[in-house]
Every structure is written in structure tokens, then in C-alpha cells.
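Problem: given the chain below (538 residues), write out its structure.
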Amino acid sequence: MIPDDIPAALFTAFDEYERAILANDLDVLDAAFAPGPETLRGDGAGLLVGHDAISAFRGVRGGVPPRSIERIEYRPLGEGVALLVSISRYVGGGTGLQTQVWQLIGGRWLITAAHVTPRAQALDRSVWRTVGDPLWQGAWEGPLRGLTVAVKDLFAIKGYRIGAGNPTFLDDARAEPTSAPAVTDLLRGGASLRGIARTDEFAYSIAGDNAHYGTPPNGALPGALPGGSSSGPASAVATGQAEIGLATDTAGSVRVPASYQGLWGLRTTHDLVPRQGLLPLAQSFDTVGWLTRDGGALQRVAEWCLSYDGSDSTESVFGASGDDLPWRFLLPAEMMDAVEPATHTAFDALLARLAASDDPARVARVSLGDLDDYYEPFRHVQAAEAWRNNGEWLREHPGAVGPAVAERFRFAASVTPEQEAASRAALAPLRERLQQIVQGGVLILPTVPGPAPMRTARGERVDAVRQATLRMTTPAAVAGLPAISVPLLTVPSVLGPAPVGVCLISRAGTDIALVRLARRLHALLTPEDKDIAVKDSA
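Solution.
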């Protein structure tokens, strides 16, 4: 149904735009939106501001399913400005709604603002492998009651298979006879499982994309990569589909998505949380961790899962986590040299605010040594273990993994026993050095070099960001130390203001105290969090 009073030129522009959507004609779609930084496009994933951001998003979205326009409502808003609201009917069933503001600019009708309401989806397959309401009910009482969990697809859940982010691996897998302790701890505390969330293939990535299931959305920055390999749990938490993400961190897979999506993310002390029932990538570094939207929820999880009331296997190492950490921060010079200029500026401003606060902390500079000295031997040991864990399956299933992950496994297959032994020897003194440094304070640094890259980033750009990121995240993994990413920085990006986390690293076994320290810092620098922090600790 086409309104009789709609201007012919406007309807022609609308019709050309709709045809371009169905054909995924990116040039025509770009030309349909008004140029400049004021143009808007929004949907359920968030708001894009500016023509460049909209164009970047569209480049990775792909076309829409076949549909026809069922109805158009036209309202003139002023001279040369009009509102169009249209209902689309999809061939595969369901309807969608498009709301657009068109403006006559230079003799052409162009879109200056648009909002899209797609047809209802059962679930986002890029985020979830399977989901329920709940998928598994936890205890009816407990400190985690009311919280739902997105479980990374590496953990055993009774009656379900582990998929590891790969459909061929999932097809070969058998249903698990028991659930992993990291899962049952949350259930015993009263949390319920919302579902099994996606992971990068075999957790051997840091970007968050998946060649088979797509890339989960970034809940804080539409059009950006979500961060991996715990991309599914992170996106589920950031978009409000779960309160807790049960994840793993080998080289940053909790901390990176936390930073990219403005979440709290804790990498626990190595071996503190049992890893039974967890599909390994590299056992020397694999660690269980959690993602939440706020510090209070993360503290509830850490206190339950790591204290005497949590898993029996963690009681003997609870120890120092019951003590407060010193209000003294150590700033690693090499890390600051590795961050992007905008991140450096934002972090310096945060330190200045801390120094001028009512509760200033002492900040001292320290040296960790050349970051490549950590990264290069780390990646050789990680690769050797990854190949031992997965090499036989990969040989039996050639072509089953995506190109980027396949390239990493090709490197892993090339690592010799002599290279692995030399790398382990090189890491030993670095581990001791870092463990000694954190005896005198808590390391503070940006979690990653900068904001999440755009989803359109490809090839060398993605690899460069990956290597720069791993140089910052691997030292904590090498030393087996707890590390938390706190959403404290905002930096400019092509897609708009973007979150970057601040990472705190403390001595082994101080995980609970580290969360409390992070909340103290967040409350001091984020006034709106003060009341929440006080209420949670009461």
C-alpha cells in the first residue's frame, strides 16, 4: 500500500534503496545515506553515528532475506523533510519495520536517520549454540540466585556435546556424562544456565570471529569485533541475554572481550579453579574466568566459587584472597609504550584523576622487560600444546577449520621439541620476575592497546592488532597470575566512543581481593558506582 500523497521522487528513492538492500548493492546503499558525521542508523544491536560508521557496518552485514514491502506510511515533517515508516513481509515468514527520515539535499532525497526492527529471531546463532529459559536450573537458593550463565562451548555440560566452535568437531563429539566443576559450582550457588555460547574455533583466536557461525555482535560498539575467544559469552552478557559469562583465558580470552565490550572480566590464578571437563587449548596457561556487566555480580561469583563456601578443591588455596591488597599500583613502562595514542591519553587522564581523588594511591613505574621476550616463547609453548591436543583430529579432518585458525595450527605443527624446551626454559625466569614484582603492589595498565577493530578489518590489520594485543596480555598468563579488566576508559574510534578496559594484575591466590580492589578503584573514579558498591558490600 503506497500513500497517494508521497512525492514521486521520494518514492523512487525509497524503491531504489529497497532494491539495493535485496541485492546487497553496497554502492547504492552508501549513496542513499546522507554524507557526513550526523547521519544515524539504529537497530537492536545499537546506534551507528556518521556515514562512515554506517558504511563499515553494512560491509560485513551481508544482504537481507527476500522480502516485499507490504505497507508504507508517509508523514511530511517540513519543507524537504519526510518520515517514512514501512512494514516488510519476509518470504520465509515474519515481518519487519523500517523507520526512516528522508531529506532533500542537493536535489536528491537522502536518508538522514533510520531505525530497523527485524523480524523476531528464536536465537542469534552467532552468539548461542543452544539456549533455554533456562537450559539447566540451578539451586533454588544461594548467593547467585537469579543470575543466568552463558557457558563457553568448551565446558562439559551433562547430556550435551562440546562443540569448540566447529561444526565438524560437534558432529564427532559424544554427550558428556557429567558437568565440569566450574559449571556445577555456579549451579550450586543458585545460578541457572541460559545456554551454551559460541567460541572462536578451539579457542585459538583473540578477535571473536568464527568462519562457520558468524561473528557475535559487540554489545558496546555496533560494527566492531566482539573480542575472542570467549566472544559468545561476552556478547551474551553485554547484550543482556545473561548475567555471567563462564569463559576461559589462555592468552587474554576473558580480558580482551571484556575490554572491547565494556565488561568486567576476571582471569583467575592458574590452577585455582578446576579444569576437569574443560576442552584444553594449552594446559600450561588455560585458566577459567568470568565476565559480568558490573563489579557486584563478579564479586558474588568470585566469593562463591573461590571461597570456603565454593568448590572444595579451591579451599586450600583461598589463603591470601581473604586479605586486602595494598592501595599501591605499579605501572609497567613497556606496556604503556605498546598502547595506541588515544588509549595512552585516556589512561594518563585516569591516573591524574586518581592522584587528585579523595583517596589517592601511590603509583610507581616498573620494568617488565621486552614484551617480545614473553610473547615469542609463550606462543611456541602454546602452539606445541595446542597441536598435541588437537593435531590428530586436524589431520583426520583436513579443511575443517577456518583459514585463520588453520594457519595458526600449521605453525603449531611446525614447533619442534627442541623449540618447545628452549621456550619453556626462557619463560621460567620471566615467570619468577613477574611474580616477584607483584609482591610489592598491583600492576595497572590498559587491558589492550586500543578499542575493538571494525568487523570489516581483514588480513594484516587483524593480525597486527592480534600480535600487539597478545604482547600485552601474555605476561599475566606466563606468570599464572590473576588479572581483571575493569571498564574505566572511553576512547574515540571510527565507530564512535569505544570502551577500553583497565587491567589490574596481582599476586597468585589474591583473586577475591583483586575484585574488591577493582571495585574500590571503579567506585572512586566512577561516582555513580559508589552507591552500588556500598549497597553490595553492606
